[in-house]
Amino acid sequence: MNIPRNEILTLGAGLAGAAVLAFLPLVTEGFWLSLSVNIMLYAAICTAWALFSGPTHLVSLASAAFFGVGTYSVAIFVDVLPFPALILIAVAAGALLAILVGLATLRLSGVYFVIFTLGLAELIGQIVTWVQTNFGGAIGLYVFTDFTETHLYWMLLALTVVVFLTGWLVNRSRLGLALRIIGNDEAVARHVGVDTARARIILFAVSGAFIAVAGAIMAPRYSYITPDAAFNPMTSFLVVIMALLGGTRRLWGPLVGVVPFTVVMDFISGHFPNQTAVIMGLAFLAIVYVLPDGVTGQLETLFRRRCSLDKSSLATTAEEGR
Amino acid sequence: MLRRSFNVLMLSAALAAGTFGAAFAQDPVRIGVSASKTGPLAGGASGVLWPNIKLWAEKVNKAGGLKVGDQMRPIEIVEYDDKSSPEEAVKNIQRLATQDQVDLIIPPYSTGLNLATAPLIAKYGYPQIVSTGNANDLDQFVKRWPNTFWPLGPAQGIADGIVGTLKDLHNAGKIGNKVAVVNVSDAFGLEMIKTGKPALKQAGFDIVYESSYPLGNQDLAPVIASAKAANPDAFVAYSYPPDSFALTEQAQLQKFDVKAFFVSVGGNLDAYGKRFGAAANGILIMGGVNASAPVFQAYRKEHLAATGQEADWWASPVAYASLEILQQAVEHVGSLDKEALNKEIQTGTFKTVIGDVHFDNNINNNNWTVGQWSDGVVHGVRATGNLQGAQPPVLKPAWPSN
Fold first, then answer.
1. Which of A88, A168, A209, B142 is deepest in the core (most CB within 10 A)?
2. Do B99 and A31 touch (CB under 8 A)?
3. What are the start-end ranges of the H helices in chain A?
4. Are B116 and A222 an interchain contact pair (Cβ–Cβ within 8 Å)?
5. Is residue A86 domain-resident?
6. CATH code of the domain containing A66
7. pTM of the predicted protein model
8. In chain A, what residues touch B97 (CB-CB under 8 Å)?
9. What InterPro entries does its record include (chain B) (predicted)?
10. Chain A residues touching B140 at Cβ < 8 A
């Protein structure tokens, strides 16, 4: 494989960074570790979300559905199977769900796709409730394991690394190229012979499987799994907000959104527990007005503006930013 | 050698600081709360949990503080919003335990968030008195986390309360055996109907109408119309607040007269009594209190004065009682030692606004399951265990003409 030198450097730096982060639980095991678990959780989910939604420009609100499916994969089988097997079940369940949804929504685009995915989490949550009351014991399922926050952190860190590696490989592949063309103009993509349906479904399945794994890893933290908590629509919205804050045009874009978002939100909820909602709302408005392209988009614009004083290239940058 | 003596020096300095600090400064007892202020659980938490924390803290501080050993220390509440999310709740508990290093913790609102935070609260050893949650199979939970306490008792048995009351009325020859039963098709309603329906059948009742409706459905006129057409003697609804109100309203509009009319969550709210006024007389509800106990009546007055809102007739006094239990445990033990507090709560008896509370394997098995409205007040008519003060249930009069 012919890999450019700068990508090898980035890859090495990323892996070294992950290795350093792996030592965090040895330094702290209290509040900062729990905050890091939350950051790592959303880093994994948002990056996985952007794998699909970034290039295709299709905003998916199905994250809660995949997350819940992963959580339930653990909740149902935790007493009979070892944990690694549960992760595999979550992968299969997440991918299968994504393929089914992908097949059903082939012709949907834009806002129709968004609405369909929003309904999906609710639909599956209701189905789970119905199945549990009619065939299962009770609504809630216990998940008792011996995992501590440290274990969750390590698993999520590993998941994030795998998501990044997958994203990097996809970007370099024909599939990644096909998706970028679809994102720019689906009609053009079809005309040049891209199998748009196949490309969309494959990547949706990859993205959904990763989010399901994140849900599976978090199940031990919930201890008691109910449909309301597992399929909480708030998950879907937070993922979109954080990923858009970071920007979805680069693989590391969502990460740039997740870290400041989580830290700032934590600061706000720690210092203004009674005004969190108001301040959060103002923050969202500010993001949309000040950073329409996300942090990465803004950084790139600034960077290019400094590099080139040529007005025509500035115009192209602005054009691309749309 | 040098290092060792240095350590000794530091140790004695720390000890000295500790004793002086304790003797001279009345530093507050810091009590951490993480519960919902936003999100889907905020409504319930701000109706039941937050007002009682406010009332309790004010009352304790007005009385000079919390008695820890031989000193009175003021209490200081450190509060965070968990946004109704387990992720936030877990993080908040960590923040309270390791950053704020609070002395005691008041656990979150709802069963789910209590169970999600239980492993961490247990790790730091705080007593966790779950005043706003219950679940099935509590025993295995207690075995795993012996610092959790369940004043509301197990979820099993709550649905059966009304069945017992109906059976008593039937055996006394006061009502027939035809029952209409409906439920909200959400986790709560489904779980209740699952145990309630077999219990009704086992008690010999004939279910002449049965239906469920989705949560958030405001048009319940067809449900009541069909139930009325089946001509039952009793009407049982495993319902949530919005539909408890809507079903009652429709029953009144359509003059659906039954001798026993039961609604679940929502019927215990003070707003329910105010909304229906005299028409609420005789309506049976889930939960209840011993309304004639002077200690409860005093509590209701204080609740209104301190928070500007009325306590409800089921959950509020339990939430307040859980704080009283925490307070009395500290007074009995004479320190804030968490292990000693857990032991005391496991074995002690506590005088609260809901009467004397004693935990049996960390579970309170004496709980109101059915109450009945009478002139703006709810009287408990049925309880599990040996609760005192139950009033005999009366037949519901016909809806007043409006």
1. A209
2. yes
3. 5-21, 24-27, 31-56, 63-77, 83-104, 111-134, 149-172, 174-184, 186-191, 196-222, 227-230, 233-246, 253-271, 276-290, 294-307, 311-320
4. yes
5. yes
6. 1.10.3470
7. 0.80
8. 30-31
9. BCAA_transport, Leu-bd, Peripla_BP_I
10. 142
**A279 in B contact zone (CB under 8 Å):** no
> Can you give the CATH number for the domain in which B106 is found?
3.40.50.2300
B150 with B164, same domain: the answer is no
**Interface contact B111-A140, CB threshold 8 A:** yes
CB nearest to B86's CB, from A142, A221, A274: A221
Reported as a pLDDT band with limits 50, 70 and 90, residue A111 is confident
Cβ distance of A140 and B116 shorter than 8 Å? no
One-letter-per-residue 3-state SS of B230-276: CCCCEEEEECCHHHHHHHHHHHHHCCCCCCEEEECCCCCCHHHHHHH
A35 chain-B contacts, CB cut-off 8 A = 91, 94
Q: Give residue B25's pLDDT.
A: 52
* Pair B107, B214 in one domain: no
pLDDT band at A137 (very low <50, low <70, confident <90, very high): low
* ipTM here: 0.73
Q: How many CB pairs under 8 A join A and B?
A: 96
* Yes or no, beta carbons of B87 and A228 under 8 Å apart: no
Q: A277 and A316: one domain?
A: no
What is the span of the domain harbouring residue B208? 160-286+369-383
Q: Are residues B170 and B278 in the same domain?
A: yes
B379 and B354 both lie in a single domain = no
Q: Which of B182, B246, B242 is nearest to B208 (CA)?
A: B182
Task: Indicate the number of domains in chain B.
Answer: 2
Q: A150 with A39, same domain?
A: yes
Domain range holding A245? Answer: 14-291
> Per the CB < 8 Å rule, is B83 touching A221?
no
Contacts of A269 in chain B (CB under 8 A): 80-81, 83, 88
